[in-house]
Each structure stands twice: as structure tokens, then as C-alpha cells.
Design goal:
331 residues; alpha/beta; D-Maltodextrin-Binding Protein, domain 2; 2 domains; ten-stranded mixed beta sheet; 10 strands; globular; Bug_dom1; TAT_signal
């Protein structure tokens, strides 16, 4: 796979086309866009997950804000890369969008071999939707009450403690790898086919711990079925003020927030990107989206395409280093 900063002849020509398109795409055309044409919002995951639910809610808002129809197209598979590839190949007219999480853009490219797209060069950032903090949790029967307890036990018996993830190359897996590298402990990784079975086996005590999205873990923490040892956010979570952050637990640079964002194909005209950014930004401010985000445990973001570009490049580099240091080779 090409590195995200390489520039093939095809992409060089696409970049030139983007510049030309930006110069000739008039303000009048941008105002008229999408001209009643249907927008396809590709979700690279199955229906029912947070990325899908959030995407459908935004699509419903955009129907009115952009005076057009927005349909959601679920294209799951290969850790989200099948859906991402679909958008990378689409016409750069703003009518095909990728509503995704961090995985296909910043993690999967380092884990999966022979991708058909470049996660940076083939996509134009539109807007950050929001971020999702995670909780480091253990089942109620586990003897660990702090992160230090967990690390101490793992160091005494390397790979005796197992942690669950939603699959190899997912953000849940990467956090376990990051904890190993930061602590010097060694754990046993148990990948599942999705976050839900990973959570279920953590609850059942089949594995000792897991990093779980806060919204999914919170009800079980509140009932006592799970014990939260730390939050991966920069600040303590309002819903769990007694739970320390990973920084407070001794890992000052362990801040992980899974982002959700929107991308368009590379070479999409800048005025179209600006119109999409404004429309989605307004949708994120709606009472309906605010209530849904609270339910899903997502902190809504918004912001400029440039801010999203900075975030995706930083996370691409960050997780690439974690994966290389872990010795994980592309499949």
C-alpha cells in the first residue's frame, strides 16, 4: 500500500482537477448544489451500531437543510474498509459521502494488506461529527480495583490476563496494545466479531478486562456488573466522576477518544465541501442530534475540514507507530 503522503500520477492529476474545479465551481453553483440529486451516505458497518444510528439521524436532518434526499448505504466488512473503498472510487461531486469511525482511516490501513485506497490521499475531510471515550472495565468477580492492580498481576504472570476486543485492528484492540507498550505488561488478546460479544464475555468473566465505549459500558457499571478502572478521556466523565482518567492512573499520554467523521472523495470541489460542512454542522446543533448523542455517549464536535484533516493525520501516525511497535504485520 502507498503511504498516505505519497502522490501517484493519478492522484497528482486528481489534485490538479480539484484545484481547477475549485476555481471554476461558482458561488451560484455551490448555492444550487446538490440540485435535488440524492446524496448517498455510506456507513462501513452493519445497521444498528452507533455509526449507523448517528448517520441516519444526520441524514434525516440534511434532507431538510439541503433540500434533497439523503439515503444511508451500509457497506460493512473488512474492518470498515469495504465501505471506505466504495467512497474512494466514487465521483468527486459531493453526492457520495463516508460517515465513518477512526478505524478505516487511521488503523485498518496499517493492519490490512493490499487496500484499494489511500486513507489520506483518496479522501477530502468534511467535518468531525464527535468523539467517544472508552472505559477500561473488568467484570465484578475480578480482583482488580485499579489499573495498577491489573498491571501488577500481569507483570507477575505475563499473558495470564486476557482482554477482549471487537476484532484485530479495532480501536479496542489497539488500546490493549498501547497499554502493553506503556506499562511493560503482557496481556493475551482475544478478538471477537464485534464489540457486543466482547462486552458480553467481559461481563461473563471469560476474559479479565476490556476497553469498551463508555455508553455501552455505563449501564453495566451503574448496576455493578462491571467495574470501571479508568476512562480514556482527557477529563473525568460527568456520568462517572469517581472514575479516574488513564492519566490519573499513571499514564499521562494515554488519551484515546474514538472519533466519528465525514469524508468525501478526493477532488470534491471546495465549495461543495464547504456547503456540506455547513449543513452537517447545523444538523449537529439540532435538539434531536444533541439528545441522540447524549444517549450514545458521543461528544458532538463539528469544526472545519482542516481540523479533521489534522486529527486524521495525527491518529494515522499514532496508531501506525503502536502497530509497528507491537510487531503486527499487514494481513
Amino acid at each position: 500500500m502507498q503511504t498516505p503522503y505519497s502522490l501517484s500520477r493519478r492522484r497528482f492529476l486528481a489534485l490538479g482537477a480539484a484545484v481547477a474545479a475549485g476555481a471554476t465551481f461558482s458561488a451560484r453553483a455551490a448555492q444550487d448544489w446538490p440540485g435535488g440529486k440524492t446524496i448517498t451516505w455510506v456507513v462501513p458497518y452493519p445497521a444498528g451500531g452507533s455509526t449507523d444510528v448517528l448517520g441516519r439521524a444526520i441524514a434525516q436532518q440534511l434532507d431538510a437543510l439541503l433540500a434533497t434526499r439523503v439515503i444511508v448505504d451500509n457497506r460493512p466488512g473488512a474492518t470498515g474498509t469495504i465501505g471506505a473503498a466504495r467512497v474512494a472510487r466514487a465521483e468527486p461531486d459531493g453526492l457520495t459521502l463516508l460517515g465513518t469511525s477512526i478505524g478505516p482511516q487511521a488503523i485498518a490501513p496499517h493492519v490490512l494488506g493490499k487496500l484499494t485506497y489511500d486513507p489520506v490521499a483518496d479522501f477530502a475531510p468534511v467535518i468531525m461529527i464527535g468523539t467517544i471515550p472508552h472505559l477500561l472495565v473488568v467484570g465484578k468477580e475480578q480482583p482488580f480495583h485499579t489499573v495498577a492492580d491489573l498491571i501488577t498481576a500481569a507483570k507477575k504472570a505475563p499473558q495470564s490476563l486476557a482482554y477482549a476486543s471487537g476484532g484485530t485492528g479495532t480501536i479496542l484492540h489497539m488500546q490493549g496494545e498501547l497499554l502493553q507498550q506503556k506499562s511493560g505488561a503482557r496481556f493475551l488478546h482475544v478478538p471477537y466479531k464485534g464489540d457486543t460479544p466482547a462486552l458480553q464475555d467481559t461481563l461473563a468473566g471469560q476474559v479479565q478486562f476490556a476497553f469498551i465505549p463508555a455508553a455501552a459500558a455505563l449501564p453495566h457499571v451503574q448496576t455493578g456488573a462491571l467495574r470501571a478502572l479508568a476512562a480514556t478521556s482527557a477529563q473525568r466523565l460527568p456520568a462517572l466522576p469517581q472514575v479516574p482518567t488513564m492519566a490519573e492512573a499513571g499514564f499521562s499520554d494515554f488519551v484515546v477518544e474514538q472519533w466519528q467523521a465525514v469524508f468525501a472523495p478526493a477532488a470534491t470541489p471546495a465549495p461543495v465541501i464547504a456547503r456540506l460542512n455547513a449543513g452537517i454542522g447545523r444538523a449537529l446543533q439540532s435538539p434531536a442530534l444533541t439528545a441522540l448523542a447524549e444517549q450514545l455517549g458521543i461528544t458532538l464536535a463539528g469544526g472545519t475540514p482542516q481540523a479533521l484533516d489534522t486529527a486524521r493525520r495525527a491518529d494515522f501516525d499514532k496508531w501506525g507507530k503502536v502497530i509497528r511497535d507491537a510487531g503486527i504485520k499487514p494481513a
